[in-house]
Design brief:
Strand order of the largest sheet: 12-13-14-1-15-22-16-21-19-20
Number of helices: 16
Distance between the termini: 56 Å
CATH topology of the largest domain: Dipeptide-binding Protein, domain 3
Number of strands: 24
Number of domains: 3
Oligomer: single chain
Strand content: 15-25%
Shape: globular
CATH superfamily of the largest domain: Dipeptide-binding Protein, Domain 3
Helix content: 10-25%
Largest sheet: 10 strands, mixed
Length: about 625
């Protein structure tokens, strides 16, 4: 405005000077105010909103529901990793608290054992884990963890376990409501209801499940019950504020619980139409301050099968493919490895928790004989001799596309409860050593038949195995053929006997394996967590009194039984680890079975995907989906 006044003043002065020059008579001059010029404005384009970062995952099977207690079908668990974080994660065969402040254990006081009196005829959980009534002959645990048989019409003093779980206080449901201990109680109530699908064994073994405050849960077991894993007594939280007005049957049909359930994970459901499930960032995620999740959305696309999913990743339609069966993609393994070599795919191969093992028939079922003698494998030296005949590295390579490796023991290498390296190792492939041990045991060199003999008996062994119509069948056929050749070099004639699953795995006395009707047997064992040492204990010997026993070889060792018992009932982590290591070392030294190899798990993604970490103890490769990201195409 000051500049405008100055310009108007200069115009008036110019008019007066002009009048003086014209005889002193001023001229009538019209002074027109000049409009102030407007500053030049450069248009600014609106701020561009970045497109959401979308991670696309290919599934073979679209879940029927996302409700945690539905019969959801395959594919369900991968989506749940995005909706529900934890509550407890497995990692490298250990456990990590996710929505808990800490894991309960004996040392922090969150696991305790009390004494309780049970009257005759009252309910309890037996020492064998069965829910029963106290009567004569029923086995129970004393407070000193001794297995005792009850006497008629007599009360007993047994154990009762209490476990305390402490929730983090910053966890919220995806609608913003706090996640509380009462939500876990509600989850237990619904999961225990008769209308809810699934086993009720956990509920039957529970005396009470309660919330002592907003973030503390207390589980009390039935008298006599000693769980193999105390962490499994935690019930999955279910949002009472959203679903508390519904009973178990109504929840199975509720639209929101099935199609867009509340969770506490990194993502929530935004859209679900056939073939596409779209999840978006959960703004209430309790780890948001860490910059998680890394992407804005996750899209689950459903494709006809897992082979098509592989093609979709290679073609750029998906960034990650997930499989719903242990055996998917094995038939495509050679192509996957070639695609990795050419940079088209990022393939991860990790030894998983499934152990292929060669079991020795140490103790045959009563009345059964074998051509080479019923007591053949009761000598550790002979089991070691045959182990020296077996080139386990060659077996692992032949069965797993040249990528396999021999097992170092009965638990995966990543398992923290492995025996110390200072202990003795499994027998190495050494035909000369094998032949010397066989000679020492009285098995004379082979004659024209090529088969060793002793006291008129030939060293001919029946090899029981199942060849399913799947990759497991091809894997075991490859192992059987190579194993027969390897043992032949030691003078052992291996006669392969394929059986159906029903015939091989049936209970005692009908089943070949658990009926103890074999010489050698190939068998797979799943070990996703702490070593299942009880599977080789004397108490698990299959027989008429225990038809479902797991100790199929008939191995019996008082030292092993003691080490396993110490490991199961240890009150400190250090004591449990030492006892487990001792038990595992005994298995390596005495060889009731020969560990061959752990089956490889396969993960497939585009090369630009970041954070994908296939973990042998995690069923889904998306266990850390909140940390997954991808590089922009170059």
């Amino acid at each position: 405005m000051a500049a405008g006044a100055a310009r108007r003043g200069a115009a008036l002065a110019f008019a007066l000077l002009f009048a003086a020059a014209c005889g002193g008579q001023p001229l009538a001059v019209a002074v027109v105010p000049t409009a102030s010029p407007q500053p030049t404005v450069t248009p600014v384009p609106p701020t561009a909103v970045p497109a959401p970062r979308v991670l696309t995952v290919c599934l073979e099977n679209e879940p029927a529901s996302l409700y945690i207690y539905s019969a959801a079908g395959r594919g369900w668990n991968h989506v749940q990793e995005a909706l529900r974080d934890g509550p407890i994660d497995r990692r490298s065969f250990g456990r990590q608290p996710i929505i808990l402040e800490r894991l309960p254990d004996w040392e922090n006081g969150d696991v305790t054992l009390e004494s309780v009196v049970v009257a005759a005829g009252a309910g309890l959980v037996t020492a064998d884990g069965d829910l029963d009534r106290l009567a004569a002959g029923v086995p129970y645990w004393t407070p000193d963890m001794e297995r005792v048989l009850a006497r008629a019409d007599t009360a007993v003093t047994t154990i009762q376990m209490r476990v305390t779980f402490r929730l983090r206080e910053d966890v919220r449901w995806s609608d913003g409501a706090p996640l509380t201990a009462d939500d876990s109680v509600f989850g237990f109530e619904i999961g225990s209801a008769a209308a809810t699908p699934g086993s009720k064994l956990a509920a039957w073994r529970t005396a009470s499940y309660s919330a002592s405050d907003a973030h503390t849960i207390t589980w009390v077991g039935q008298p006599g019950y000693y769980p193999a894993d105390v962490l499994e007594s935690l019930a999955e939280p279910l949002a009472r504020h959203a679903y508390g007005n519904l009973d178990a049957a109504q929840l199975l049909a509720d639209e929101q619980a099935n199609r867009a359930p509340l969770g506490w994970g990194a993502f929530r459901v935004a859209q679900w139409e056939p073939g596409l499930l779209r999840l978006v960032r959960n703004k209430y995620y309790f780890r948001a301050a860490e910059g998680l999740p890394r992407v804005d959305e996750v899209h689950f696309r459903t494709l006809p099968d897992e082979s098509v999913a592989l093609s979709a990743v290679a073609g750029g339609e998906c960034q990650i493919a997930v499989r719903d069966s242990w055996e998917a993609w094995e038939d495509s393994a050679d192509a996957l490895l070639a695609a990795q070599s050419s940079g088209q795919l990022a393939v991860q191969l990790v030894p998983g928790p499934v152990l292929e093992q060669l079991g020795f028939g140490i103790l045959m079922a009563p009345g059964l004989q074998r051509k080479a003698g019923a007591d053949l494998f009761q000598a550790v030296a002979l089991r070691q001799a045959l182990a020296h005949c077996v080139d386990r590295e060659a077996l692992a390579d032949a069965a797993q596309w040249g990528q396999g490796s021999a097992a170092a023991g009965f638990v995966p290498a990543a398992q923290p409860l492995q025996p110390a390296p200072a202990g003795s190792a499994l027998p190495e492939f050494d035909v000369e050593r094998a032949q010397a041990l066989l000679q020492d045991a009285g098995w004379l060199p082979a004659g024209d038949s090529g088969v060793r003999f002793k006291q008129g008996r030939a060293l001919r062994l029946r090899y029981a195995v199942n060849f399913p119509l799947s990759n497991s069948g091809f894997l075991r056929q490859a192992v059987a053929e190579l194993l027969r050749t390897q043992l032949r070099a030691c003078g052992v004639d291996l006669q392969v006997q394929p059986f159906t699953s029903a015939d091989l795995y049936g209970e005692f006395p009908a089943g070949v394996l658990f009926g103890r009707q074999f010489d050698l047997a190939q068998f797979a064992w799943l070990q996703p967590g702490e070593p299942r040492c009880e599977l080789f204990t004397s108490a698990e010997l299959p027989g008429a009194a225990n038809p479902g026993g797991s100790n199929y070889t008939g191995y019996r060792s008082a030292a092993y039984d003691s080490a396993c018992s110490t490991a199961r009932f240890a009150r400190t982590r250090a004591a449990a680890q030492a006892a487990h290591a001792a038990a595992q070392q005994l298995l390596i030294d005495e060889l009731p079975a020969l560990p061959l190899f752990f089956r490889l798990r396969i993960g497939v993604a585009q090369p630009g995907v970041r954070g994908l970490q296939l973990d042998a103890s995690q069923p889904s490769p998306l266990w850390n989906i909140e940390e997954l990201d991808f590089a922009a195409p170059s």
